[in-house]
Amino acid sequence: MKKKFKPTAVPKKENSRTFTIDECLKLFEKNNYKQAFSRLSEIAGPENPYSCYLMFKLYFNGLGTPKDLLKAKQWLMMAAERGEPNAEYSYAIYYAPYQKQSNFDYQESFNWLKKAADHGHTRAALELAKRYFSGRGCEQDQNKALELIKSVSQQDPQYNFNEEAGQCYYTALKLKEAYPYLKAAFNEGRYGISGILATYYMRGIEGIPQDVELAFRILKKGADNREGLSEYILGSHYKSEKNIRLAIRYYRSAYEHNLLEAAYELANITMKDPLRSSSDEKQSVRLLIKAAQLPVANHLDAIADLGSCYYSGWGIERDGRKAVLHFNMVLESVPEHPVALFGLANCHLNGVGVERDVNKGLELMIRAAELNTMPAQLELANIYREGEITAKDDQKYLHWLERAAQNNSDRANFILGEIYEEGTVTAKDPQKALQYYTAAAGLAHIGALKKLCRIYQNGTLTGADELKCLYYNELLVNLFGERHQETDSFSEKIISEYVNGDSPQSEQFINDLLNDVYEIIMRRYDADLPMYCEECPILRSHLSMREEDDLEQLLPVDTLE
């Protein structure tokens, strides 16, 4: 039988000095964890429970020593079983819920919380109140919960009764009961609940009249007071409005104020940024790693995206095995996760991190494509066109290209334009060719923009149109900084009339061009115009065309009636 590990103090050397806990804590304060670990190792043991708790923290977080969750748990248990309140609370939160492998053991967790609360641990008492509200691991008892909160708020002024009671009711999904406490806390200047309170007015919860403007004024007050949830909600609003500059500002602030859900959002925005640098990519990966390690709402998406980074070497050293590990981790929880399916399909098709298995790869790729994953649809089209790992099939090739085109793939739209123009795979159809080229140009496909310049200059597929030719040429200039070479024959007259002139027709042309460039940028990059077009020659002097968001002008509210 394997001997059970028991953490013990390292034997002291002859004539060595005995260090104190206070000395070790000073090393913690200076972030000198390696020396703290060395000194704690000499004094930690059953006779000093708090030293055992500190050893848990070092092993659990990998500070001053390699991370070791097994040793962390053993040190924690030694401290908790001897009545160390920090250890009792940590055991209730980190380990007790997992004692039963089949389900969470909330009763075991509750028992440890009660011990910690009885030993004066404030956070344990508040967590215990939440358990009484929800009935997890105990019988529901709102009176006991409120008594605990009242006791804590009387003993420690940093805790407000209304704030804590409102949060407990809200956590227990008792939204109606939570509202008066949250409102009272806000009026008492406890703005830490601003994000929660704002949702009542944002959505009209529990009979509260919907008032979006008031909700935003509450959120602005929360953001002014460094309340992470308010900043996160504001970031999400501006992301949905495609105002990426404001979204980044609020997400970054939320992340700095320890709302780690914002880490994924920041990483996601950077991954879509066509102007990102290699340092941006590395920072994005660091944010994904943080998001992937936390029990946040988007952590599975973060794990899948991190797997994609390991597969491609985007922002981190390429590692096929880690890619496969991350994709499988996601699929164990969500079997139809599109990013993880697509990533694992590529691993099997290309033998990255696993032995090559084209049948398995094709099966996974089809599952991902059926979930409307555009890169998977493009990859399937390519597979059926080449006919290397499965039989060549022109109909399936065309089908998956059309699915990808419907999914706003600029590349698929451009290829379909070529197919219908040249009559490959299917019969020629000039009208469809023009339709697909136009759609690809609307998604900022440089080849489609050049093709349309040529089409409207030479009159292929449709009649020649000098003005449309000029229009697509100006899109090329403003989106990519280059002019189509074959359009140099434009007369000075049309350029002066429509680009450099000050007539109503010139103004209309420029306004139409600006609006279309703006829409293309938002559609293609999911971002706002100023972020990507500051160097465009025409747009440079027109960046003020987008007015500041009206909601951003709202002043914070101080109290509620």
CATH topology of the domain at 298-407: Serine Threonine Protein Phosphatase 5, Tetratricopeptide repeat
Q: What is the CATH class designation of the domain at 298-407?
A: Mainly Alpha
Order of helices and strands: HHHHHHHHHHHHHHHHHHHHHHHHHHHHH
Proper CATH architecture of the domain at 298-407:
Alpha Horseshoe
Largest sheet: none
3D structure, described in words:
With 561 residues, the chain is mainly alpha-helical. It has 29 helices and no strands. The chain has helices spanning 21-29, 33-43, 49-61, 69-80, 85-94, 106-118, 122-134, 142-155, 161-171, 175-187, 194-203, 212-224, 228-240, 244-256, 261-271, 278-292, 299-312, 320-333, 338-350, 358-370, 374-386, 394-406, 410-422, 430-441, 446-458, 466-480, 492-498, 504-525, 529-532. Mean pLDDT is 83; it is low at 1-17 and 527-548.
Chart the SSEs and their pairings:
Layout: H1 21-29, H2 33-43, H3 49-61, H4 69-80, H5 85-94, H6 106-118, H7 122-134, H8 142-155, H9 161-171, H10 175-187, H11 194-203, H12 212-224, H13 228-240, H14 244-256, H15 261-271, H16 278-292, H17 299-312, H18 320-333, H19 338-350, H20 358-370, H21 374-386, H22 394-406, H23 410-422, H24 430-441, H25 446-458, H26 466-480, H27 492-498, H28 504-525, H29 529-532
Helix pairs in contact: 1-2, 2-3, 3-4, 4-5, 5-6, 6-7, 7-8, 7-9, 9-10, 10-11, 11-12, 11-13, 12-13, 13-14, 14-15, 15-16, 16-17, 17-18, 17-19, 18-19, 19-20, 20-21, 21-22, 22-23, 23-24, 24-25, 25-26, 26-28
Main features:
single chain; mainly alpha; Serine Threonine Protein Phosphatase 5, Tetratricopeptide repeat; 29 helices
